[in-house]
Design brief:
Elements: E1 4-9, H1 13-23, H2 30-39, E2 53-57, E3 63-70, E4 75-82, H3 86-98
Antiparallel strand pairs: 1-4, 2-3, 3-4
Helix pairs in contact: 1-3
Amino acid sequence: MHPVAGWIFEENLTKVLEFIAALVGYSWDEFDDGALEAGIPKTDADLSPDTWFEYPVTGAPDLTLRIARDHGTGILSMIIDGEVGDVLAARFETLLDLH
């Protein structure tokens, strides 16, 4: 399937990722938060997604999250990639649209 892309407000990051993880059966914890805190500040959404912070989420299905900061706006761009079916993709799209 195709990647799901969108943006979220930075203050909603943890909650959005906890929801994404729950949808694939992954238990998000403080170690995951620590990895994001270390990796995301160095990113720039204006650059190619290949340069964004990349984080694996092991679940059913396995996902790769790509996240980058749009500096000065409080917005994070996000791509959710994996073998995602239509129903799960729609859930991810709705989640990104709401946050």
